[in-house]
Amino acid sequence: xxxxxxxxxxxxxxxxxxxxAGGDPNYVLNAGSGxxxxxxxxxxxxxxxxxxxxxQGWSWGLCTASPAVATVTAxxxxxxxxxxxxxxxxxxxxxxxxxxxxxxxxxxxxIGAATLPTGVGYGMNVATYSLDGAPLDSTSLDFxxxxxxxxxxxxxxxxxxxxxxxxxxxSLSILDQPDFVYDAPDATGSYDxxxxxxxxxxxxxxxxxxxxx
Length: 213
What we know:
Number of helices: 2
Helix content: under 10%
Strand content: over 45%
Shape: elongated
Radius of gyration: 24 Å
């Protein structure tokens, strides 16, 4: 078996280990929040704050508490992840979309040639969600250890140890659809200096959402 395959297997065992109860405050994962109308697509970012140790890798699951409200349709690397290995992508980077959420597992460098130093607001991933529910529906987005087979643990890997971080949930909400939308775009008018009269023409439209389809 190739060395890289062995390293991935060893790291996978670390990613599926149990996170520390309560979370280590030196490492914080944050999920963003967003909203939109029914059927809209909304991007949600995941960021990390690290204040101790050199990070070698990470993994987590982000569960959608009410899957009927929103479905994750894509997950891409954030600005930090995309360039974490000296300007390059990490050696191992697996993103998986699942019913009820998504998971990610990253090894920055198989040989330890690159790590992530301490910092705040690291851009880890951006997930796109389709809002499938009804107006005024909402759901939380919670870091979890239950997605995948075997389940992927929410951990930060430092000095070969899997550390459970503090996690802050995000949310998605579907906005109420208005019955009517009035639109009056900007217009240019004319002014007669002799008469003192001004003239402006407006094209006003009304969109009726309450009318039957």
